[in-house]
From TrEMBL:
Lineage: Eukaryota, Fungi, Dikarya, Basidiomycota, Agaricomycotina
Family note: Belongs to the universal ribosomal protein uL3 family.
Name this polypeptide is given: Large ribosomal subunit protein uL3m
GO cellular component entries: mitochondrial large ribosomal subunit
Key words of the record: Mitochondrion, Ribonucleoprotein, Ribosomal protein, Transit peptide
GO biological process terms, semicolon-separated: translation
Natural source organism: Lyophyllum shimeji (Hon-shimeji)
Amino acid sequence: MLSVWALQRSSTGICRLRCLHTSAITSAAQVASSSKTTTPAECAPPKWTPDSLRTGVIARKRGMIAMWNDQGARFPVTVLQLENCQVTANIRTIRRDHTEYHAVQVAASDRPVKTTTRQMLGHFRRAGVPPKRIVKEFPVTPDAHVPVGTTLSAIHFVPGQYVDVIANSIGKGFQGGMKRWGFHGLAASHGVSISHRSSGSAGNSQDPGRVWPGKKMAGRMGNKRVTTQNLAVVRVDSALDLIFVRGNIPGVDNAQVLIRDAKKKMNALSSHNQAKGLYEKVLPKGVDDLPFPAGTAELAKTLPPVIEAPAYRRSPFTPPE
């Protein structure tokens, strides 16, 4: 079961997103193999709803480029690339409070067999995928499980939607209070003796006679898990598995990052009573549906290799097709 997107081709030759609509595609082999009669409701593919929580993907941060919108305004874009991102497991557990936890385990970036532990080799062998360098799991709703071994494509995200990117920030080493926390510093005038960038008093003398827990002081900065929220997807290249995200994200180049649907822009709105069932209150304008339960490599073959949002155009630094 796949999803088909309606696209329109611009004068530059790049297909731009016009509207998204989910439709059922049944192959001839599936029809021939099915012996019993099925109803249209049983043949219908799973459809995305505002209450659905899809899996995320693992990608590499390749760098940044510049793009221009239809008004000629320049903005930065971060290029993320998927490296053979595949599903390795579907997780379902029962918590102590008798609630169910559902997740999809995803692995990416192939690695040699000789550098992989035997435990992980057995895990990947059961999933039918080659050894991977990084394995992560994404919480999903019960209807968003993906078959094990499925190869995820950049088409999993629709140009125009918003995503959250999770990565480790660049380590800055030991830094003072001004750089680490944005402190104002002391006065740069007479009477301040070599303390212009000092953090000032850290305690309150005898009462309480100690430093409060959580006090912002000098220390190691960076190298922490950081989530950058509500970044717009401006272009998707399924041929090279590239996702062009507007803005900057944490981490160094070639670092592994996690990409998921924006919670505050999309999924969090669905919990509001007025937003349930109203797609226009959850998805951005111009996006009517999302590939569900995931955008696969098979779906990418049925679509043009490059798709971009209507409000953006290609960078002049991108070579012509």
